[in-house]
Design a protein that fits this description.
Arc Repressor Mutant, subunit A; 2 domains; Tetracycline Repressor, domain 2
């Protein structure tokens, strides 16, 4: 039987957001428990009780980041074409990467950009999420090829990789100070390379 502990004396969702921002600024490996507890405004025992450990806290922060806006996720999942899906992914990324309320760039890329073998499993977790997103877009592209919306010789993997290469590039540009408006223009220019079935 699971032991029932004392109720948390803080808003778990709010402190998780603060942890995410801390990881985002400093990176997973270089962020210490002291950094986290200071930013979250809780004690180390409270962190361990609520989240397990630093690794589990980070993985939960990643899940929060990926699923932050269910409405946007629903729009992406139900976009009428693969091109619409790509546009929503690009547009959403440009917005997130330049949000004034969070650090610039992509949380997943920024927080795992460097690290030792000790954090390899964490980087692999993030890589698996990105690969799943790429695969989902590739499957949408495959559907459009089958429907005749895209040329039959379209490389679904290459097209999906193009979109995610642009997304990763926008993360770097955002960290360098490029504004959202410029990133949106970049997205529109990139989609000019989307094949058309004439």
């Amino acid at each position: 039987m699971k032991k029932v502990g004392r109720p948390l004396s803080f808003d778990r969702d709010e402190v998780l957001k603060k942890a995410m921002t801390t990881f985002w600024k400093s990176g997973y490996e270089t962020t210490s428990i002291t950094d986290l507890t200071t930013a979250m405004g809780i004690t180390a025992p409270s962190l361990y009780t609520a989240f397990g450990d630093k690794k589990q806290l980070f993985l939960e922060a990643i899940r929060l980041y990926v699923c932050a806006d269910p409405e946007v996720i629903n729009q992406i999942d139900n976009a009428p074409t693969a091109k619409d899906t790509a546009w929503l992914l690009l547009q959403t990324s440009a917005s997130i990467f330049t949000n004034e309320n969070t650090p610039l760039g992509c949380f997943m890329a920024s927080s795992t950009a460097s690290g030792s073998a000790n954090s390899e499993d964490v980087r692999r977790y993030v890589t698996d999420i990105r690969n799943e997103m790429r695969l989902n877009l590739k499957l949408r592209i495959d559907q459009d090829i089958e429907k005749g919306l895209l040329p039959s010789d379209t490389s679904a993997f290459a097209l999906a990789d193009l979109v995610f290469a642009i997304i990763q590039g926008m993360s770097v540009l955002a960290r360098d100070g490029v504004k959202q408006e410029s990133l949106i223009l970049l997205c529109k220019q990139a989609l000019n390379a989307w094949p058309e079935n004439n």
